[in-house]
């Protein structure tokens, strides 16, 4: 996890950077506005100046403890426009959830700023944090914010009531969720449904552990753990594609004779059908390294369920546990 001082997220044409003590005045000027505060459940109105300092200090402490990630939304002249952030909470049955929140100052409304900032933070968080999903709640009289969440990829899952401190009363809210399968990369959405052929390997080391790679931010299903491999090019065999992908993604060399066909996945995702042979491979040369910035993990088969995987891979788990 990058250090807080270096954690900048690009949300072109905007930028997200961790809140700093010197943001307090600008933050206070924008947030101490009834139209902003009445939509934020935990903020008082009027919003005292000291609270801005206290809040910024609290966000730095949360970040250090890996309990929260709160950013200033800046324009290309480093003007402070609002905040976007998340707190990590552990919910019964569901596990660790990132609770997303944001606000934009009134001069900056209706420009799509919250959507860009929330989308970037959501994609970053699902790709990099140990969370099962994101959640957000929206007051039911806040149509603009519901639109932001829907454009970001959140889906409404129910309703609740929440205390809104500035309004002095509780108020109905819609609860939204976003999971790793809700990340749609626009450039990978085909115009018509198609069959995608992917070749993948379970690399097995001398201790019987299997190599998993975490799909990096920017790819579909980012944050999920997969078997290294990739799409077959037209005319390419499954073995040739896999040898090429293992070299590109991990920097290792594998020969055809070391790829043993093991099983295959056939799965319908919402936008495409996946057909993916899985090979077992126990011999390669070189040390696997994440050459595309992806995290790697050598995992005992008994622990495979601790790593969230794409739906297509779930049937592999029991088969590998029986075999290895
Ligand atoms: N490599 C791999 N892909 C998987 C697994 N499970 C699964 O659903 N997939 C899906 C995710 C993607 O839609 C597709 C693989 O595409 P990819 O994006 O990794 O393809 P690639 O390595 O060729 O990368 P790119 O150049 O297209 O970005 O298969 C898996 O275990 N390994
Ligand atoms: Mg790949």
TrEMBL record:
Protein name: 8-oxo-dGTP diphosphatase
Cofactor: Mg(2+)
EC number(s) from the headed UniProt entry: 3.6.1.55
CDD domains to which the protein is assigned, alphabetical: NUDIX_MutT_NudA_like
InterPro entries in alphabetical order: Acyl_CoA_acyltransferase (IPR016181), GNAT_dom (IPR000182), MutT-like (IPR047127), MutY_C (IPR029119), Nudix_hydrolase (IPR020476), NUDIX_hydrolase-like_dom_sf (IPR015797), NUDIX_hydrolase_CS (IPR020084), NUDIX_hydrolase_dom (IPR000086)
Swiss-Prot/TrEMBL keywords: DNA damage, DNA repair, DNA replication, Hydrolase, Magnesium, Metal-binding, Mutator protein, Transferase
Ranges for domain N-acetyltransferase: 14-183
Species of the source: Acetobacter orientalis
Catalysed reactions listed for this entry: 8-oxo-dGTP + H2O = 8-oxo-dGMP + diphosphate + H(+); 8-oxo-GTP + H2O = 8-oxo-GMP + diphosphate + H(+)
Chain ranges passing through the membrane: none
Nudix hydrolase domain sequence ranges: 194-321
Family recorded in the similarity comment: Belongs to the Nudix hydrolase family.
Biological-process GO terms, alphabetical: DNA repair; DNA replication
Keyword check for DNA damage: yes
A Pfam short name: Acetyltransf_3
GO MF entries: 8-oxo-7,8-dihydrodeoxyguanosine triphosphate pyrophosphatase activity; 8-oxo-7,8-dihydroguanosine triphosphate pyrophosphatase activity; 8-oxo-dGDP phosphatase activity; 8-oxo-GDP phosphatase activity; acyltransferase activity, transferring groups other than amino-acyl groups; metal ion binding
């Amino acid at each position: 996890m990058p250090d807080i001082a270096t954690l900048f997220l690009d949300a072109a044409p905007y930028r997200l950077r961790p809140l700093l003590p010197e943001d307090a005045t600008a933050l206070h000027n924008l947030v101490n506005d009834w139209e902003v505060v009445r939509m934020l459940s935990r903020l008082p109105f009027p919003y005292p100046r000291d609270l801005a300092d206290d809040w910024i200090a609290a966000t730095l402490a949360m970040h250090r403890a890996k309990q929260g990630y709160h950013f200033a939304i800046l324009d290309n002249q480093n003007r402070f426009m609002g905040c976007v952030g998340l707190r990590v909470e552990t919910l019964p049955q569901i596990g660790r959830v990132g609770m997303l929140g944001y606000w934009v100052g009134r001069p900056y409304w209706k420009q799509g700023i919250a959507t860009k900032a929330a989308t970037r933070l959501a994609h970053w968080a699902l790709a990099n944090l140990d969370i099962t999903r994101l959640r957000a709640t929206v007051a039911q009289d806040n149509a603009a914010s519901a639109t932001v969440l829907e454009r970001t990829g959140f889906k409404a899952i129910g309703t609740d009531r929440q205390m809104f401190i500035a309004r002095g009363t509780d108020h109905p809210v819609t609860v939204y969720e976003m999971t790793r399968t809700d990340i749609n990369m626009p450039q990978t959405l085909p115009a018509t449904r198609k069959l995608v052929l992917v070749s993948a390997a379970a690399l097995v080391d001398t201790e019987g552990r299997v190599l998993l790679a975490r799909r990096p931010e920017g790819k579909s299903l980012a944050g999920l753990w997969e078997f290294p491999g990739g799409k077959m090019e037209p005319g390419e065999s499954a073995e040739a594609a896999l040898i090429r992908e293992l070299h590109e993604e991990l920097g290792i060399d594998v020969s055809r004779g070391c790829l043993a066909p093991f099983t295959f996945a056939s799965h319908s995702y919402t936008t495409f059908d996946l057909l993916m042979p899985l090979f077992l491979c126990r011999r390669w040369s070189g040390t696997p390294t994440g050459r595309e910035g992806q995290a790697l993990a050598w995992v005992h088969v008994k622990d495979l369920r601790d790593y969230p995987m794409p739906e297509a891979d779930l049937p592999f788990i029991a088969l590998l546990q029986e075999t290895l």
